[in-house]
Amino acid sequence: MAAATLLFPLLGAAPSDARGSDHGLQSAFTSAAARYHVPPSVLLGVSYLQSRWDTHAGAPSVTGGYGPMHLTDARTALAESASHHGDGSEDARGDGARAALHPKVKPPKTSEIPARLRTLPKAAELTGLSRARLRMDPAANVAGGAALLAAAQKELGAPMSSDPADWYGAVARFSGADDTATAAAYANDVYAVLRTGQERRTDAGQLVALAAQPGLSPDTGQLRRAGLRTPEAGETECPPTVSCEWIPAPHEEFGDGDYGNHDLGDRPAAQDIDYIVIHDTEGAWEGVLTMVQDPTYVSWQYTLRSTDGHIAQHVKAKDVAWHAGNWYINSKSIGLEHEGFLARPDAWYTEAMYRSSARLVAYLAKEHDIPLDRQHILGHDTVPGPTASTVRGMHTDPGPYWDWRHYFELLGRPIEPSAGPNGGLVTIRPDYATNRPEYTGCVSAGQACADHGSSAVRLYSGPGESYPLIKDVGLGSEPTKGVNDLASRVSTGQQYAVAGQDGDWTAIWYLGQKAWFRNPQQSPTAVHASGDVVTPKDGLESVPVYGRAYPESAAYPADVPAQAVSALPYTLPAGQRYAVGGQVPGEYYYAVDFDEGSHRVVVGKDLYYEIQFGHRVAFVRAADVNVMASGS
Prior knowledge:
This protein is an alpha+beta fold and 632 residues long. 22% of the residues lie in helices and 21% in strands. The strands form 9 sheets. A 6-stranded mixed β-sheet has the order 5-11-10-13-9-14, with helices on both faces. It has a 5-stranded antiparallel β-sheet with strand order 20-19-18-15-21, with no helix packed on it. Helix 2 (14-20) crosses helix 3, helix 5 packs across helix 7 and helix 8 (168-174) crosses helix 9. The longest helix is centred in the N-terminal third of the chain and has 18 residues, at 138-155.
């Protein structure tokens, strides 16, 4: 009570200061650090890794974390059903040679909420502040984080030093991780932030700065006194800069000769791995892990936890997981599930998870020679339907609230201009925080979603918002502003050929149409680029577009059923150009039995080009198109 009495005067004016003045939040960090004898840089560094100092207007993260310190109070987080792959009509396996797989969602077993999801109640005990205030008042939230760090330092028997190097153990404990590898990876990230420094304006308009300390070398030996378990890395395929554990998905037979939940393979010896697919889980960590260990469910290679960036690997890179809804993409990709929810704008992802994911993707891309661009680092929402009948049922995660621009900065491939105004291409790159298109359907159909930053830009049939939205004929319905409606939407990092300019509006070729988006010169939503594009060969009015690059029928051996080379309900008309992602051979992985001895990789003579056709990527036959430089 004495501590609480001392703290209340400190925070009395903080709510208005933290939201109204330019430096109110910075002052809150300074005050809280002084009150709890925590180095200000440590408090700022931990908060940056949790939230990048954003407040999210008091809304909880995907794991029930609040405020700039991401104090967790996730009493309802674990009640969410992991329904991502069991919802809707998409067949996660996406292979017509086998019966469609629509797994039933089994609600996860409820258990005690782990300590990492109950840090806000502990902060309330330490500060005497109410839980409501810790959720909604940014200054109180910062004070709660400082109190937790100070308590962790005392529990470790470490001095209340002013030297940031002496706080490594407390920072590791703040992560909430119960194992040394995750806690160390988290603490290492915080100290990396301290060494480089940061400065940014938050979502509440606050300017917050952390000065660089390039020579800072923490006492990592403190972690040995933290009382955490040592995890078994097992058979994981992860870089040493992340925390990774092996939680295998079962490759088992069940029922009437059926099996799941992935296929054994021999990649990259038998097939190249060309893509990494970014998903969100639509469920909480514990429930998702239960699902992926069910042989009757589906699978993916990795799951990432939001609170601290911890990674679980389930399927080897050599094997084919069932995750993307398109067998061609599945057989040539690695799938990453991120703990989160598409249609909850303020159910935000932590910086810890973004960084962990970027390190994993950069590692996998280097291992398998995968280009770090949006035609190879796919969202699940950019995977094409394999056939015309599947287009409507394809999934739409991670959705418009995944911060692709920041993600590619973390990958070491920031989205920058690569040409002048005559380059012929544009790369979509809005400012995430200020780009706030209207969406509906996050809570209920037709109801407006919360106003929020977005990676996506809306497309119109003319140079102005009075024109109708661009229509996707494959969806068979009128376009809407629904959060799951991809008909008239482009996303950060995607590249398109320029089709025209009218004042502040730029036209691109999109789904066989001229589509317009607002792109003012003073605040552009795209940057100039150049590269290869395809257009139909001379004399052709249009060419078919495909959702998979399958071989011609003559390429199949007698014991492997030939798969149809079926076009999508789109065409690429003469005179239009589309950005090329690369050339690939026609290829099909035949794997419909549990016995891997019957599996075959069929490679044809037909070649395809991957293109950015609409919101999703697609393929065209090389024999149908000419390739040229975008600026020609």
